[in-house]
Amino acid sequence: MDVDSRIPFGLSTDSGRIVDVGSVERGNACRCICPSCKTPLVARHGTQNAWHFAHRSQETHNETRNECDYSFAVSVRLMIRQLVTNGLKFKVPRLEGRLPAYSEFTHQAKDFDYLVTEESLLTLEDVEVGAAFCGETVDVLGLVKSVPFVVHVTYKDRNLPISLKEPQVARSGVIELNVDDLPQLFAKEDSGQYQEVLRRYIEDRTDGKTWAYHPREKKLKNIAIAQRDSWLDQQDAEVKLNTSANYTCRMCGWVGPSIKCESCDSHLYTSNKI
């Protein structure tokens, strides 16, 4: 689906709601306008291409192109806002981190993993759309067990505000939902029922969703940092305990106090003789 010209959702002039192309009459009778530039739309129910809205005339589209380059993304963002106000649940991805460590003293490597949250399906309460949060207007603001939860939709040239990566409300969660790859998902639907496709995507899938901020991540990362630093100190202490030990290199026969052969410049072939 061409993001610039094929639009899955239009704004109904009758109801004032966002609708998918599969739920309106064909052609100009759809009575819809573009959610991005407000140009009249035509509903194309073809037999070869996926159903979609298009600007009613090429001439009109050319006149509004500069302010309507992101009709696809804008229409999806507005439909997401509409869906969540109707009790939509939201699946969030697993969030985990890894801190690699390497001891220059013992030449040992170890990873320190920490799990922030498992993949889960959240139920949002007291949902607001287009609400203010930490100085930004966000797409979705709700509560999950009394904790503020934010969904912010991003796409080409609409990035996540920096303030949402470290919000002033420390006990909150922020998900970035990028819709740049959704045209490929919608292209599999041939009868224009994109609202249901989008609903299933939000409730069942996690691709395109990223934790921009999770209230437990910093604490768990700091714990992993402390564990890593403690392990590195232990590696250093082990070497210091063995400074009087004699090591021999099976490759060249070198003997010395270090686990690393000074001749081969490697620890791979040394062993403790004590």
Structure description:
By secondary structure, the chain is an alpha+beta fold. The chain contains five helices and 17 strands. It has a five-stranded mixed beta sheet with strand order 10-11-12-13-14, with helices on one face. It has a three-stranded antiparallel beta sheet with strand order 2-1-3, with helices on one face. A three-stranded antiparallel beta sheet has the order 16-15-17, with no helix packed on it. It is elongated. The N and C termini lie far apart (71 Å).
Shape: elongated
Distance between the termini: 71 Å
Gyration radius from CA atoms, angstroms = 28 Å
Largest sheet: 5 strands, mixed
H/E element sequence: EEEEEHHEEEEEEEEHHEHEEE
Structural class: alpha+beta
Helix percent reads: 10-25%
Low-confidence stretches: none
Count of helical segments? 5
**Would you count the extended β strands for me?**
17
User: Main sheet: which strands, in order across?
Assistant: 10-11-12-13-14
Strand residue content: 25-35%
Q: Roughly what is the average pLDDT, rounded to an integer?
A: 88
